[in-house]
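Quick check before the chapter quiz. The format below is the same one you will see on the exam, so make sure you can read both the input and the output lines.
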Amino acid sequence: MAPHAEALPVARSRAASGDWPRTTRILPWLAALLVVMIYTVPIDSVALGIPLPFDPRPDRFLLLGCFVAWLLVLAVEEPVRGARVAYRVGVFDTLLVLFAIAAVASVALNLPVLEKLDEANTAAKQLILLLSYVAFYVFVAGVLRPSEVRGFVRLVVALGALAALLTVVEFLTRENLFYLLAKELAPPGTQVPADAGVVVAGGRPDVTGPGRHGLAVSAMLAMTLPFALAGAAFADARRARLFFGVAGVIILAGCLATVRRSGVVLPFVAVSVLLALGGRRMVPAVALTVAVLALVPVLAPGAFHELALQFSGANVQTQRSIEGRTSDYSAVLPDLRAHALVGRGYGSYIARRYRFLDNQYILLTIETGFVGLVLYLATVIAAAVRAVRLGLSRRRPAAWIGLAGAGSILAYLVANVLFDALAFPQAPYVFLLVVALVSVVRQATDAEEGGV
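Here is the expected output.
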């Protein structure tokens, strides 16, 4: 008999009482604080008033504090046996570390040239950002108990709905509340711009949410959407179905309110994956998606018209954007040939100096060579395989986490074609958060079944 759909089939023990959020343990609360920051703070625009050789972004300092706290906990507390399944390093984890090593090596091997071109400092900053992504994944996957994943999924969906709601407000009023609140609440000396300062063709302000660009918030919301839809489809309790369903409506409206093609394409990819893997179980998600599309004219008036223009072949700006992307492919061939194996150095290709590529895969090939590109693709594909295997399992409570994770991860895979995703922290942070949640549940399920 299948257990309750809101519970996860994890290796619970007597020591598992006091799971987040009903716990005084500091580590899951720090992980939750990281997640809150990602969804609500313009982390790539806010600079703390601390003179450092790298960008003093708030996420870097919070991550450093998290690891210090983790080390202190490990030093002063006796391990609680059976409190959770010990996290084991898998294929994804190995590939993620290898990609980070390839990125560092690409800079080290090209350092003399980068210093002459005055690009070494830019590369170093991007490497620090990349290592922040890896540290975030390690921390979340390392400190969460399997029995805490359900609470974190609810947190992620609630934050996604909040971010989407404020994004809709931004579309309607042209006031970015994320930046306004950050400016009001920031400590003295913190530099916070009034808004992201992005203006798209035609003079229309970009809808950026907590990000630096509309592409970042559309990717973040699109990766959150599958958890709302899968939760609404699988939850047994009426209150849970209502919570996930309403959140799904708001999140999808937020995607559309970005008035970006990615705000349509990425949710479509995520929902398609849910339908392909979930089958009849995901029929409620289809109905919910159709209902949201019908409500968009009410929730975000004018969004449909703007989106139609984005996809219209008669739109001059759309055609220029497409032509600009395709012209990039032949233009960067000399860069690809010059450093085909290890690239010219991760993070060293300055768009303002050379060319805006809007494609993470092409950019990675230039910066880290085919070695880096293959490792990056393998990392994302390994994450997708991990989620799909969990999603196709017959253990219903764990399956919906895997289904949602697969939709999110494949949406991220496509997002890398649409923009340089690693340069906008919201997208890779949410991607790695999803992989961490899937990984913790998957390993606990394997332990229960005697798997590896």
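If your answer matched, good. Residues 112 and 377 are 28 Å apart (CA to CA).
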